[in-house]
């Protein structure tokens, strides 16, 4: 019997009605003769409510206690889903992250999964039970509850699919698949039938919002086929796998964008590379994700260095830089918020020069100032003012004729 | 350094303001130079909200999944209390039941604590941390989450106090101590300075509502001094310990009452004792607490048997009796709800005959029909109509001059 992992996000379990609908989707797959593992997130706004409670009591709550607090959200959902399945006559059992054997590194709020001891899950699947696992959470070797950070439930689902050698991992969400851009902002955005892991990685990394990068990486490494589909509508979703037939003329396959970006610029790094690496090692040790990095030599011969981070990490980044200012040889630094990242993605880009140039041209013609640029083989990213983010994305979606393809095929 | 266990119920952590107040009470004891272990319940109405969610999705939710669901309530509170303590500059760490090493028997919704592995708590106390433990919950040998049933947080607190050889266990609640009766219904009820474990056991068993019987039993067995006091007011509480000086003339020390009682009467148990014991064994195996039992011989020579249970257990009791009707040799049975239990309690009762007679006289003079009677060395219980419960309690409180004593001392 094939094992299928189904993951339902917060919207799909947001209230009693939605949970019943989710249960129907689970039953459908079970009735096809599959063994089913379900991964669920916290109900709708639960996490936000818990966060605001914490903020009322503490100006800077410890990450350990936040993990303790937030991990309750998924635990509520798993039990409710198991009850609703039992009510329909299906044998179901719920497991928290630690009960499901999900072992993580010893980092709070953003832990990586180290291994999964699947014995308990397998034992229950073999008793014909539907197994419901709390997403987003795990346990350290030392019995500490950890959470996996943003998109953590996706990661749980993919990691379980890999560990259980599942046939596929289905990610149910509030959209019908992966789009050329976010349909909430780009009305002409078109659903893609298939994307490669690498394209999805860039889309995920760049804030496409459908799937978290870490989950896609995991799927790529273990060759787990992912299907992104709607939990409400019966449309075919988007499949994410290794080899994807490139649709004709589709050099750029998507436009992704992400707000709440901050830029930090450091001046006076006298010894260049050595200090450069110290800065990023120091930030990495504190689990701050640095995205775009730009380094340059000013007229005075001093190095200056700019990098972008998530706005939420800015406070901690400033703390770290201030504490280590002398040790890192930093003269002074400044920061800027209110920024956004807009990117174009496509596997075909590498063999088609001029794509980046066209992007810059479109933006500058429309008086959108580009503050940072970063390129890879399959994407070009720019940092722009947050206010211009959606406009920039719309212009690029149009310029690269992303909506037109659907009509041609 | 002395270890003190402080337990705060749902009301004491019902909102952000209450949690701050609770944190002040914790800090007070810490500042006296004690090592502090705090046990907390779920916030105010959390448990009720979770129960109603479960009931929307399932007509008869499994006890295992209810434990999974409800145990999140305390987990939320422990993290918030730890954060609030950190905000005031105190080092605090929260533990769920399983993290705190609370091992229970393999029974859902009403498990008993088997043992407590205190290493982790002791280690953290020795690092000068305030340890916050989730009440009401534990874990089986098989990593299943269990809850301890009604009043479970009291049990957790007392069990921890015993295991840690704490100096005392302070139970903070919304009343200022143990009263001669429930002050919400009996305006003249008087706070007792001290009661013995046995008296408290009867008061708890009989629905005094302040402390759960299992917690008192635990305290008695391990000689843990309990102090019941208010989390809001600064009044002296009531101490519960082995030897209590009997106040002058105070034969009856309290009137307790409890509504939502059901009575089941079984007819036609042909073989008497053998079947009698089968009936109760069967119910006990399903963890149904049978309280008062009355057995009699009818004119036809058949045995009939009445017993009282909590109304909430009636549905399951009827299920069990129906399923086992033939095996138990039951001819037929009936049930009655809308009943209540009213009791008088006092250690002095054993050496003062006539107390029970006086009780029956007071009730019958006021036309309150007594449906069942049960007596022990330190209490007399009667089952009456629910509607007459408060009136009966008021009459008895007056008849035994419970409010008068305060003025005489």
From TrEMBL, chains A, B:
Positions that bind ATP: 7-10, 173-174, 184
Gene Ontology molecular function, alphabetical: aspartate kinase activity; ATP binding
InterPro entries: AceGlu_kinase-like_sf, ACT-like_dom_sf, ACT_Aspartokinase, ACT_dom, AKii-LysC-BS, Asp/Glu/Uridylate_kinase, Asp_kin_monofn, Asp_kinase
EC number(s) per entry: 2.7.2.4
Pathway the protein takes part in: Amino-acid biosynthesis; L-methionine biosynthesis via de novo pathway; L-homoserine from L-aspartate: step 1/3; Amino-acid biosynthesis; L-lysine biosynthesis via DAP pathway; (S)-tetrahydrodipicolinate from L-aspartate: step 1/4; Amino-acid biosynthesis; L-threonine biosynthesis; L-threonine from L-aspartate: step 1/5
Cellular component GO terms held in the UniProt record: cytosol
Enzyme class: transferase
Self-association and partners: Tetramer consisting of 2 isoforms Alpha (catalytic and regulation) and of a homodimer of 2 isoforms Beta (regulation).
Family: Belongs to the aspartokinase family.
Protein name as catalogued: Aspartokinase
